[in-house]
Design a protein that fits this description.
CATH topology: Nucleoside Triphosphate Pyrophosphohydrolase
Structural class: alpha+beta
CATH superfamily: Nucleoside Triphosphate Pyrophosphohydrolase
Distance between the termini: 43 Å
Shape: globular
Radius of gyration: 15 Å
Largest sheet: 4 strands, mixed
Number of domains: 1
Order of helices and strands: EEHEEEEHEEEHH
Helix content: 25-40%
């Protein structure tokens, strides 16, 4: 199955399921659907970021958090992000993830696509070196909070819309 043919769970503002839709169509019609994101910090407190591959159907070449995805229909958030982390970054997390927060957002992307998502954010500490899929990831790096804050401020167009929102929402917590 083509990754863009996957169905997503449409939800209301409270994460109650209200239907299903093909993923690309949900992005075209700006229908709110479930998403899940993961922040990874190493034991030095550096953030793991990846640059999305050039062939991604939206937000290509932009830097973003360690991993994000859409849960499959009936799949819980934590299982979804662990599955996708292996697929994208080649990292397997065995333990539980820390649930940071849930948020909704709406953003215009490229080529008449929209993000309208109910996003559940998790975090974890991990020192594994990524072995990313070249289909998903162009590059990756660890970066300090201060360097990241400065770069997002100076070069906001280099980052995905959802990651800029995530960074703002958790910035105070990780400003150590």
């Amino acid at each position: 199955m083509n990754n863009e043919d996957i169905k997503v769970q449409l939800v209301d503002q409270n994460d109650n399921p209200i239907g299903q839709m093909e993923k690309l169509q949900a992005h075209i019609e700006a229908k709110m659907h479930r998403a899940v994101s993961l922040l990874i910090m190493n034991s030095k407190g550096e953030w793991l970021l990846h640059q999305r591959a050039e062939d991604k159907y939206h937000s290509p070449n932009l830097w973003t958090n360690a991993c994000c995805t859409h849960p499959l229909i009936g799949e819980n958030y934590e299982v979804a992000i662990k599955r996708r982390l292996i697929e994208e970054m080649g990292i397997e997390i065995k333990g539980e993830l820390k649930h940071e927060l849930d948020f909704t957002y709406f953003a215009k992307l490229n080529d008449n696509l929209f993000e309208h998502e109910y996003d559940r954010l998790f975090s974890t500490i991990c020192d594994q070196e990524p072995n990313p899929s070249p289909i998903e990831v162009k590059d990756w790096k660890y970066i300090s909070y201060e360097e990241l804050k400065k770069d997002i401020h100076n070069n906001p167009n280099n980052y995905t819309e959802w990651f800029k929102i995530i960074f703002t929402k958790v910035s105070d917590k990780y400003n150590e």
